[in-house]
Amino acid sequence: MALIISDECINCDVCEPECPNDAISMGEHIYVITPSRCTECIGHFAQPQCVEVCPVDCISVDPAHVETPAQLELKYAGLMAQVAPADVAS
After folding, report:
1. Helix (H, G, I), strand (E, B) or coil at 60
2. What are phi and psi of 32, to 5 degrees?
């Protein structure tokens, strides 16, 4: 399941740098999570890092993007496959 940031977001800027998949960015008014990049930190950490650092608890599971842990692992593998060629070329 991808995560979502509610309108309770205070734009404190702590979640964005914690995301290992670069899924968090500034939206029109608050931070947003790109569902296609969010793996809930599966493959990186035991818990979603954005949820861990959010001071107002405004990040939750996005009911519009329900995924199983296995699907999140596949998404993680796909994201890492996209990163690997750039790393090799460096």
Report:
1. strand
2. -130, 160
State the chain's mean pLDDT as an integer: 93
Note the pLDDT of residue 61.
Answer: 95
Rounded distance between C-alpha atoms, residue 28 and residue 41, angstroms? 24
The structural domains of the chain, with segments of one domain joined by +, span 3-89
| Contact (CB, 8 A) for 27 and 57 | no
- Other Cβ atoms within 10 Å of 59 Cβ, number: 22
Considering only the top CATH level, what class is 3-89? Answer: alpha beta
End-to-end Cα, the chain, rounded Å: 33
Q: Does the pLDDT value for residue 82 go beyond 80?
A: yes
Judge contact between 14 and 55, C-beta under 8 A. Answer: yes
